[in-house]
Amino acid sequence: MAGSPSEKRGAGRLLAVRDLRVGVGPQEDGFDPVSDASLHADRGEVVGVVGESGSGKSLTLRAIAALLPPGVAVRSGDVDVGDIDVVHADRREVHRLRGGAVGMVFQEPMTALNPTMRIGPQIAEAARAHRKVSRVEAKARAIELLGQMQFTEPERRYRLYPHELSGGMRQRVVIAIALAGDPELLLCDEPTTALDATVTMRVLGLITGLAKELDIGILLVTHDLGVAARVCDRIVVMYAGRVVEEGPAVAILRRPRHAYTLALLQAVPTRESTIEALRAIPGSPPKVGEVPSGCPFVPRCTLAEPACEQPVSLVEIAAGRMSACRRHELLADLVEADDA
Amino acid sequence: MAFAGFLVRRLLQAIPVVIGVTIVVFLLIHLVPGDPARTALGPHATPRAIERLHHEWGLDRPLPTQYWLFMKRLLTGDLGTSLRLKQPAGSLVVERMPVTLWLIGYATFLTCLLAVPAALLAASRQGALRDRLVRVLSVVALGIPGFWLGLMLIEYVAVDAQLLPSAGYGSGFIGHLESLFLPSLTIALGITPLVIRSLRAETLKVAESDFVTTARAKGLSERQIRLRHVLRNALAPSVAVLAVNVSFLVGGTLVIEQVFSLGGVGTLMLQGINSRDFPVVQAVTLILALVVVAINIMGDLVQALIDPRVEAR
């Protein structure tokens, strides 16, 4: 990618996922919920991964942290986080990866914390897992993190149990845990889905503020385009286990170059949108294992032509823009006409 | 402070239970078919003697008055006088309590010692050989009757191998530990399988929780995850199972006491029943019932110590 911000460091990518395939069950007769995912992230950047439920975005995220559930495994492709080759990592490297190189924020703050342990020690143990620090130092670090997470009286909060906190507060504790090992990459799996609207903005503000302040990369999985529009620098659109479009957030949201992205955007209510203008995408995503060989969106696409039945891959259509849509030029014209 | 509040609340909740227990114990004497005084004194008692006992037990008064008098005596610590031994029934029981309490405490300790590692071993890899082995052994242990196991242990461990005493209570702390090992083990083996089953199932359930994934994402080792995060959360429900079974075990100790000739409360109870010594039977029943209530309260307290959310309920 020419002109991406990582070049200034000269170092390799913070995160590079190439042709990732994640499968469930045995190799021969299992199925692959993630069949072709490529994406990357750099320091100081917030990358949104958007798509409907079942598009494989959460599994992609888990594969990056080597946290795939039992029975689910990477079939092929590469995941590099800094200098760690995640797919072929041994136990020591997995330890270095989890919590050390990569911090993870989960969807459900209500269940992501151990109910029988005070929140402070839960943060402190994450700090101790990666640095040789004493208990006292780890505690000080946990209190410092609570302060960074905008808890008032962090020393007192250190001793609270999760059930004594609200959902938004718990999610801030989860973020503190994710940051305790000083990761370079923060993976957020729908971090605000379980929170109400006012808290959502606060948590999102915290997360994006961190990316700039700590100069770390953030991968934010969400199905909420509004959330993505607000905080992301770049957006990756996934559909049926594949990355179908990628590019700068503003460009993706203003001038989508994939029929699926356009359909997604038309389904989002805005202040100007009338009921008629609001269009739900007809049908539902293909079931895993029944994905057509060509473009997976064809059965629901209003712009599809016969050629779309042929296999298609993600190609660079403009500087920093990738699309897997044969009709991307038509889309460009359509959106242009709309703007005029 | 919240914990002290919880304790007080739990003690207050026990009051109705205790009152219920006193009613049952009080009615015990009336549940015996026929005239309790005649049953107690035997077929050759003179009408005068029966009359006297009637009056002594207050059986010639209306039932509520009888209960009132019973409670009044109870609150002053008077549980009646043993017909056979002519001694206060209450102190007869209290004298024999230490053996029984030792047995309950020791058996509970041994149960934990056996059940926790076995359950963790089984749950560390579901379906593996060690898991199947623990489960098979549990079923076998569950199927062995306690009195038979006690006799076998006496026969092979105490008599043949001369490793441990076969009977008696021993003296001093070490003496008790030694003498009561076999009876306690016998009792423990009866409830260990139940605790293993509960703890194994809980451990497997907790291992799938989101917070375990969080712990894994922190980069903790599987060992740290199991000890710090899984065990503690799996323990709370198993403590409840343990408390219920220790309560059952109070009944079980009566039999095991006989097998090992320990002369505890169980022996007193059996003698009382055989000689129709109602005050003794009542005293034993009441005190053992209080022990069961106390065990359940302790179980709740331990649960609250493990899981702070229990207090909040």
Write the layout of secondary structure elements.
The complex is a heterodimer of chains A (340) and B (313).
Chain A: E1 15-24, E2 31-41, E3 46-50, H1 57-64, E4 72-81, E5 84-85, H2 91-97, E6 102-105, H3 119-128, H4 135-148, H5 154-157, H6 167-179, E7 185-189, H7 197-214, E8 217-222, H8 225-231, E9 234-239, E10 242-248, H9 249-254, H10 259-266, E11 315-318, E12 321-323, H11 328-339
Chain B: H1 2-31, H2 36-41, H3 47-57, H4 63-75, H5 89-124, H6 129-143, H7 146-160, H8 172-179, H9 181-206, H10 210-218, H11 222-259, H12 265-274, H13 278-306, H14 308-312
Helix pairs in contact in B: 1-13, 5-6, 5-9, 5-11, 5-13, 6-9, 7-9, 7-11, 9-11, 10-11, 11-12, 11-13, 12-13
Under the CATH scheme, the architecture of the domain at 96-264 in chain B is Orthogonal Bundle
Tally of DSSP helical segments of chain B: 14
Beta-strand share of residues of chain A = 15-25%
Listing every helix as H and every strand as E from the N terminus to the C terminus, the arrangement of chain A reads EEEHEEHEHHHHEHEHEEHHEEH
Q: Using DSSP, what is the number of strands of chain B?
A: 0
User: How many separate helices of chain A?
Assistant: 11
CATH class membership of the domain at 96-264 in chain B: Mainly Alpha
Q: What's the main sheet of chain B like?
A: none
Give me the Rg of chain B, rounded: 24 Å
Oligomer state of the chains in this structure:
heterodimer
Strand order, largest beta sheet of chain A? 6-7-8-3-9-10-12-11
Q: In the CATH scheme, what's the topology name of the domain at 96-264 in chain B?
A: MetI-like fold
Radius of gyration of chain A: 21 Å
Which structural class best describes the helix and strand composition of chain A? Answer: alpha/beta
Mean pLDDT across residues of chain A: 87
Strand content of chain B: under 5%
